[in-house]
Amino acid sequence: MEASRKIKASSKLSFRGKHNSTKMHRMIPWESTLERDFIKLLDYDPTVLSFKFQPEKINYVYKGKKRKYFPDFHVLKNDMREYIYEVKAFEKTEDEENKIKFQVGMKFCSERKMKYVVVTEKEIRKGFLIENLDILSEVRQDSTSRKIMSVVFRTLEKLGGKTNLGTLKKSISQFNEEEVESNIFHLIYTHQLKMDIISAPISDESFVERTSN
């Protein structure tokens, strides 16, 4: 399903564009850099099965005038619940017009057994999360090697199941270090390995460990 509202090019200086979604395998529009970063979180979140940009149109009346509200994202999660996410800068969440939209969105969702959630930069841009996701998501699956990934798993087990990135790379000498790093990054991005990607930028000192089954 395409978005209900066509995204028009703006003649003003604005931030609009499209993000190549690793989960949806297509370009997803965004109308603010905060929305763009939220798409990156949706791509990374293992509980998210699919998402759409502005597929819903909600008609409502505000100050005697008919208005239309297009919530930002419709999300299906692995609990099989549908969610509507509104992405908004924190400083704008107390604006009267936005508070009305939030109420309209909550009513719309409650009538359809959906959940309405407002997210701000406080939830989206935690620590170094977005910067690190940009690094991890650069590695595409078709550039990875099952052989190298198997060696990564075996080597990590020999190292006690947890070690820093630099040590893990140096312990796999039979392959090019850049190839090894790319495969490790893919395993982290796909949640097959764990790394704290919020507290600090990814470096050779970052710890890597197996995920618990």
Condensed summary:
33% of the residues lie in helices and 23% in strands. The protein has 213 residues and is α+β, with helices and mostly antiparallel strands.
Question: What does this protein look like?
Answer:
33% of the residues lie in helices and 23% in strands. It has seven helices and eleven strands. The chain is elongated and about 70 Å long. The strands form four sheets. Strands 3-6-7-8 form a four-stranded mixed sheet. The protein has a three-stranded antiparallel sheet with strand order 9-11-10. A two-stranded antiparallel ribbon has the order 1-2. It has 213 residues and is an alpha+beta fold. The two termini are 35 Å apart. The model is unreliable at 9-13 (pLDDT under 50). The longest helix is centred in the middle third of the chain and has 15 residues, at 96-110.
Q: Keyphrases for this structure?
A:
213 residues, alpha+beta, four-stranded mixed sheet, three-stranded antiparallel sheet, 11 strands
Q: Which class of secondary structure composition applies to the elements?
A: alpha+beta
How many E-type strands?
11
Share in β-strands: 15-25%
Helical segment tally?
7
Unreliable stretches (pLDDT < 50, length at least 5) are 9-13
Mean pLDDT: 94
Radius of gyration: 21 Å
| C-alpha geometry | elongated
* Element pattern in H and E: EEHEEEEEHEHHHEHHEE
Q: Helical percent range?
A: 25-40%
Strand count, sense and closure of the main sheet? 4 strands, mixed
User: Spatial order of the strands in the main sheet?
Assistant: 3-6-7-8
Q: What is the terminal-to-terminal distance?
A: 35 Å
